Amino acid sequence: MSKLEGKVAVVTGASKGIGAAIAKTLAKEGAAIVVNYASSKAGAEAVVAAITSAGGRAVAVQGDVSQAAEAQALIEAAVQQFGRLDVLVNNSGVYEFAPIEDVTEAHYRRLFDVNVLGVLLATQAASKHLGDGGSIINISSAITHVHTPSAAVYAGTKGALNAISGVLANELAPRRIRVNVVSPGFVVTEGTHTAGVVGSDMEAGFVAQTPLGRAGQPDDIAGVVAFLASDDARWLTGEDITASGGIR
């Protein structure tokens, strides 16, 4: 029996990259998936098609998790479609670097609204439906450990997310809802391509610092998330698993 058989999962920001890999992997393990997207409808529908063609269950649901009403509607859509909610993966995030002289209020608010407020709003909505055995997995970043130049705001959002996750692990534990963090190292995605990191000296620097000697791939992260979503991780909460090939 697949380890997530009968479970329902919402994966935010699942139209591409790490989120898409997570959605497909959870579906492969038997979960019904709500593939959330903010703007890339075609990408989300492609993920749904990949899941359903393999015999899984999935729907695409649009929603900007940094808006309370849309975060609420996303979770309600999952319950209406599949009858329950067992897993929330807070993957939505803005990946954008800027040196300190280029940091603006708009840059700060955009990153914090999606990367931090979005997690709070989605978790707030989901916590009303999650029960005993529920699992929340927040996607952070190893950048909080390696202190990459030009990443002050982005790293700040992920540091905040780590602290929030620890608080929520304790807050939701009496209801037997687990909250854990996965912190990827450098991963080749559409986002890192768009940011100009792939193929750059920055990527070469990340790989040089990585004991396993390569960049990460989305599937490297998805497997860790699937473990945390499953009953195999029933004794884990408040943990931060750094999935980075050994970079610290």
Automatic annotation (TrEMBL):
Class in the EC hierarchy, top level: oxidoreductase
EC numbers: 1.1.1.47
SMART domains: PKS_KR
Repeat keyword on record: no
One protein family per Pfam: adh_short_C2
A GO MF label: glucose 1-dehydrogenase [NAD(P)+] activity
Record flagged with keyword Oxidoreductase: yes
Keywords (A to Z) from UniProt: Oxidoreductase
InterPro entries, per database record: KR_dom (IPR057326), NAD(P)-bd_dom_sf (IPR036291), Sc_DH/Rdtase_CS (IPR020904), SDR_fam (IPR002347)
Cross-referenced Gene3D superfamilies: NAD(P)-binding Rossmann-like Domain (3.40.50.720)
Domain Ketoreductase: 7-192
Family membership noted in the UniProt record: Belongs to the short-chain dehydrogenases/reductases (SDR) family.
Classification via PANTHER family: OXIDOREDUCTASE, SHORT-CHAIN DEHYDROGENASE/REDUCTASE FAMILY (AFU_ORTHOLOGUE AFUA_5G02870), SHORT-CHAIN DEHYDROGENASE_REDUCTASE FAMILY PROTEIN
Official protein name in the record: Glucose 1-dehydrogenase
